[in-house]
Amino acid sequence: MKLYDFALAPNPKRVRVFLAEKGISLPTVQVNLRELEQFEDSFQQVSTFGTVPVLVLDDGTTIGESVAICRYFERLHPEPALMGTDAKDMAIVEMWNRRAEIQCFSACGEAVRNSAPMFAGRALAGERGVDQIPALIDRGRATARRFMARIDTQLADNPFLAGANFTIADITAFIAIEFGARAEISIPDGCANVARWFDSVASRASASA
Ligand SMILES: N[C@@H](CCC(=O)N[C@@H](CS)C(=O)NCC(=O)O)C(=O)O
Fold it and tell me: Are residues 25 and 57 in the same domain?
């Protein structure tokens, strides 16, 4: 089994943090996205989507998508549970993780990929010849800030996004906000609960995975 990874990219970090929380270590293959290795034949044969992370099992099965990879390990290594334990918990975690992905991770990605010079002509992950659209920078920033304002209420009464326990939803939102800093996205003034939560996630050993 091996994990195609890139140490500087946020989506593979989601998987690395998840694995670190579970105490799992895996052999990794670094795909240097800054050198455009995702477009080389050697990686395109692994995934024509041109994105990392990708997990390749010993039987050759290829699993792309961060959440799918996490789900695979959650099933094999249920402790500590990071995706909920019963029907209600699992649904709640899924709800917050989806919100974090759509309203925060995608929004931060939109702001970063449409602003950073390194993504000129590559505004969408895994693609070439896709121009940046400057109007999406502010839209991404505003969407991410709205998300943070909304979760501030949730985090007023709960240590973590999905409630009492640290879950994949915290991993997704934390890494999204960390990544968003590359497009000057920061925790808005007045979101003291988000700031407290962010610091607590940042202080976990897994945060530097
Ligand atoms: N939805 C995918 C997104 C994967 C993705 O966008 N990965 C980025 C790195 S964070 C990538 O591989 N980018 C390739 C590129 O920039 O061309 C997942 O969750 O795994």
Answer: yes
Q: Whose CA is nearest to atom 1 of ligand 1?
A: 65
Report pLDDT digits (tens) over 13-44: 999 999 999 999 999 999 999 999 999 999 99
- Structural domain for 204, as ranges: 87-208
Look at residues 39, 57, 76 and tell me which one is the last residue of a structural domain: 76
Assigned domain for 81 exists: no
The three-state (H, E, C) secondary structure of 157-199, written as one string? HCCECCECCCCHHHHHHHHHHHHHHHHCCCCCCCCHHHHHHHH
pLDDT per residue as tens digits for the range 142-165 = 999 999 999 999 999 999 999 999
Contact predicate 4/52, CB 8 Å? yes
32 domain residue, yes or no = yes
Same domain for 92 and 46? Answer: no
pLDDT category, 186, cuts 50, 70, 90?
A: very high
* Domain at 193, CATH number: 1.20.1050.10
Ligand 1 atom having least distance to the Cα of 6: 9
Contacts of 155 (CB under 8 A, 6+ apart): 161, 193, 194, 196, 197
Atom of ligand 1 nearest to the CA of 128: 17
Provide the domain count of the chain.
2
Q: Ligand 1: which of 37, 51, 62, 102 to mutate, judged by most atoms within 8 Å of the beta carbon?
A: 51
